[in-house]
């Protein structure tokens, strides 16, 4: 794997080498599957759909959270943008390590509140927050498969 090309030359089969005396025909190479388009995911957030009222989901999954961040600190960061606009924030903990699992769930009181939250955080590095300057993680927001406070608490609550 170390010798595998990167970028455009990383197509399946383009980096496979046959041992001496054995040739591999192109038809023997595994089929190339198109990459999944993340924007086509049913969990992708489309702000135009939220604005038009076509998408009314209210629960988001926040991914790539620094593992040592506490739920209280996460809430303080989110409150800078959406204070009083969400009613549930859950940051699951890994019971073996005592740190968070790297993702959280936030449920907004209305779908329109997602817009400023998304604009403020999606695609931004955690290093842009004052206490995580060393983090290389980038915030990713998606709709949660579990929608609503009651379902979140049933799945992730105490």
Write structural notes for this entry.
It is a single chain. The chain has 158 residues and is an alpha+beta fold. The protein has helices at 47-52, 71-82, 114-121, 149-156, and strands at residues 59-63, 86-90, 103-108, 140-143. It has four helices and four strands, in the order H-E-H-E-E-H-E-H. The longest helix has 12 residues, at 71-82.
Low-confidence spans: 1-5, 7-19
Number of helices: 4
**Total count of strands:** 4
- Average pLDDT confidence is 77
Cα-based radius of gyration, to the nearest Å = 21 Å
The assigned structural class equals alpha+beta
Shape verdict: globular
* Topology as a string of helices (H) and strands (E): HEHEEHEH
- Order of strands in the sheet with most strands: 2-3-1-4
Taken as a percent bin, the fraction of beta residues is 5-15%
Quaternary state of the chains: single chain
The level of helicity is: 10-25%
Summarize the structure.
It is built from 4 helices and 4 strands.
Topology of helices and strands:
Elements: H1 47-52, E1 59-63, H2 71-82, E2 86-90, E3 103-108, H3 114-121, E4 140-143, H4 149-156
Antiparallel strand pairs: 1-3, 1-4, 2-3
Defining key terms:
four-stranded antiparallel sheet, 4 helices, single chain, disordered N terminus, alpha+beta, 158 residues, globular
């Amino acid at each position: 794997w170390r010798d595998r090309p990167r970028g455009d030359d990383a197509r399946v089969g383009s980096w496979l080498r046959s041992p001496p005396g054995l040739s591999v025909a192109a038809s023997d190479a595994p089929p190339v599957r198109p990459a999944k388009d993340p924007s086509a995911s049913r969990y992708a957030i489309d702000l135009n759909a939220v604005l038009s009222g076509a998408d009314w989901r209210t629960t988001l999954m926040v991914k790539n959270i620094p593992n040592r961040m506490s739920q209280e600190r996460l809430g303080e960061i989110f409150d800078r943008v959406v204070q009083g606009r969400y009613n549930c924030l859950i940051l699951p903990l890994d019971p073996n390590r005592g740190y968070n699992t790297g993702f959280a769930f936030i449920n907004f009181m209305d779908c329109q509140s997602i817009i400023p939250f998304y604009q403020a955080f999606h695609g931004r590095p955690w290093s842009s927050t004052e206490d995580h300057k060393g983090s290389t993680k980038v915030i990713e927001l998606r709709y949660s498969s579990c929608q609503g406070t009651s379902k979140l608490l049933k799945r992730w609550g105490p």
